User: Which sequence fits this backbone?
């Protein structure tokens, strides 16, 4: 099972901004489980919060800008890229201006800042967003963005400059180690013929050869030599990771990008979020999706149960620390069908209760204080069996914790098939050390 990660302590970075040409101090703070990425404008009255969500993307010209209420955060992609690239799930990003420091134009200063703060593992599972089918987008500007199902995160990117200049291709499996070494140091770049246009629009006021590469004809103007021969495409991958962090969850997939940019990147993020929401809406219950949060192996790392008494195939949805949905595919090969009943196989009601208890136990173990413990089933109240469950049915097991004390847990549970409740009850557990 993968666990969420945050920062061990706060750490700050100060410097100039790219587009506004001002000065800013940015501080990364630890954040609790399920927090995600949020920006806080310390310089504004009431210190408003802006969620790092694709729903709040306002503009995408030369940078990704978020607006929530009256608060704006500009150029979010580099700091979000570093957090996502290093596998940090939860962080509060505090700033005293509307734009993070540009540094040297790469994400390397943010990688250094995160390493200064340190990364800790939290006592709650991650829930990566995994695709079940490809998503493909094309734009009028010639950008092509496709994501395929994949067990990790891979990005295959083709950067095509003006008139085909400096066309570069790179494909990498993104891990924290690969990100820090091969992606984070790549700097932002601009074509010389675009500089005047951008300045006239009030952009890149703080731009210089110290924080950007400038392409002029067949030459590259820079304060220092290129860090990679294909530095441009590496920076494009950096931006893709930062923009897709606005999905709000770790992403699993193989992204194939041709002529990417902040616009196409955020459009792909929107399409991924929409695809996920559509799957949830089409599921038998509105809060349930077919996207696995915990597979069978991860379930067995939490529960001591094994064949033939493991009644949960996977967990498909967590909602904070109090709600969960598990799935059990009821096969004709279940051993209890031999005697329950010959010629008329029906899943025993007591095993449906056991399925509820196992999902509830997983839910209780998500609380930080319960990590490494086990829940013992003590009693069942208000139990009702409404419909029989047959071979071939898929059981969706919904659990909501209604009480969780130090040594006791109480959960309201129900099993559903095709959107109908087949059984329900209120279960009581004792929580003890293994």
Assistant:
């Amino acid at each position: 099972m993968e666990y969420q990660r945050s920062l061990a302590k706060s750490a700050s970075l100060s410097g100039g901004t790219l587009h506004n040409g001002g000065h800013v101090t940015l501080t990364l703070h630890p954040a609790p489980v399920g927090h995600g990425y949020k920006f806080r404008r310390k310089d504004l009255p009431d210190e408003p919060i802006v969620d790092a969500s694709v729903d709040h993307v306002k503009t995408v010209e030369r940078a990704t800008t978020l607006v929530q209420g009256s608060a704006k955060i500009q150029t979010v992609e580099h700091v979000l890229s570093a957090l996502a690239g290093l596998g940090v799930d939860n962080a509060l990003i505090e700033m005293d201006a509307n734009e993070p420091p540009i540094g040297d134009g790469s994400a390397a200063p943010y990688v250094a800042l995160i390493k200064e703060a340190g990364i800790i593992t939290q006592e709650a599972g991650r829930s990566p967003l995994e695709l079940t089918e490809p998503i493909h987008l094309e734009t009028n500007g010639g950008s092509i963005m496709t994501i395929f199902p994949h067990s990790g995160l891979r990005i295959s990117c083709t950067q095509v400059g003006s008139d085909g200049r400096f066309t570069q291709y790179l494909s990498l499996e993104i891990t924290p180690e690969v990100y820090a070494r091969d992606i984070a140091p790549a700097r932002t770049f601009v074509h010389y013929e675009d500089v005047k246009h951008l300045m006239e629009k009030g952009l890149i006021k703080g731009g210089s050869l110290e924080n950007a590469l400038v392409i002029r004809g067949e030459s590259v103007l820079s304060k220092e030599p290129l860090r990679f021969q294909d530095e441009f495409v590496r920076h494009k991958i950096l931006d893709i990771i930062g923009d897709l962090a606005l999905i709000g969850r770790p992403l699993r997939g193989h992204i194939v990008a041709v002529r990417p940019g902040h616009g196409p990147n955020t459009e792909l993020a929107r399409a991924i979020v929409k695809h996920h929401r559509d799957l949830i809406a089409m599921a038998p219950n509105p809060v349930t999706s077919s996207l696995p949060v915990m597979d069978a192996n991860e379930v067995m790392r939490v529960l001591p149960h094994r064949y033939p008494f493991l009644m949960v195939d996977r967990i498909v949805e967590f909602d904070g620390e109090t709600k969960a949905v598990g799935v059990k595919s009821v096969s004709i090969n279940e051993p209890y069908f031999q005697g329950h009943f010959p010629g008329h196989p029906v899943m025993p009601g007591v095993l449906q209760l056991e399925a509820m208890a196992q999902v509830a136990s997983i839910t209780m173990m998500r609380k930080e204080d319960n990590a490494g413990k086990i829940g013992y089933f003590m009693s069942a109240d208000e139990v009702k069996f409404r419909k029989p469950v047959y071979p071939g049915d898929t059981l969706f097991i919904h659990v909501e914790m209604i009480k969780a004390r130090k040594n006791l847990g109480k959960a309201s549970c129900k099993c559903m098939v095709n959107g109908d409740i087949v059984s329900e009850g209120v279960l009581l557990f004792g929580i003890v050390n293994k």
Notes: The helical segments are 77-85, 108-117, 176-183, 192-200, 231-244, 262-282, 296-302, 349-364. The radius of gyration is 25 Å.
